[in-house]
Design goal:
Length: 139
Amino acid sequence: MASSLTCAGVVWAFLSFLCAAASCVGFFMPYWLLGSQLEKSVSFGTFRRCSYPVRDESRQMTVMVEQCGRYASFQAIPSAEWRICTVVTGLGCGLLLLVALTALMGCCVSELISRTVGRVAGGIQFLGGKCSCSEGMGM
């Protein structure tokens, strides 16, 4: 297999892939915030939640649904900030994964990644990282 990457480029490609995979897994898991409500453990992320309260009209009380699930629609996400976070984090993860997979292909195909393409990919990766990390850091 011919490669268009240097040793540093190969290390960058594999680290990029690992970071992109970790970001995507973190995006899809509902464990961003953990706490308790009605004496039950609850957790939720940008578009998934576990153990959430619902109003039981037949018994006229609030009960906890002890299962994980996603919101029924984009508008069902509790606030505009969480909807923005979902979109921005999803775009960031997509950019990171695109660059990481391109870099991994560069390990196998010669002349796929030039110095200029590597710099542009690094810039896109930086932008994707800022997008997926900006909400978690309070920016």
